[in-house]
Amino acid sequence: MDHEALALEMRGLREQVTGITDTAVAAADGLLIAADTADSIDPEGLAALAAAGLGLARRTAQATDRGTLRQTVTYGSHGCAAFYAVGDTALMVVLGDEGIDVDRLHRATQPALDRIGSILTHKAAEGV
Question: What is the value of pTM for the model shown?
């Protein structure tokens, strides 16, 4: 797998959107693929929690006839956690501080998600 390409995508997103503090890419089952997180964040735990949350959000979207889930955001007193579907098999989680512009984040994330999906699809096509 091209871990460097994934790292470049995560760093590029952080450079585009002020307020991003951490990012991770995980398989839909919660296994960590790549992370750019602070030492205070457990990337494997983050991946597992993000997968569980995204799974619930997907089921909620389906049960309420809202279509295919694109993203979900959880807001806390110190910022937010945004979870994005990368196709059916992966996800990206982005943590932001309380000053992050979530609308800007959503706009900047879509092209990165497309590229991450291509990177992951290329990996699957190689059988790695």
Answer: 0.89
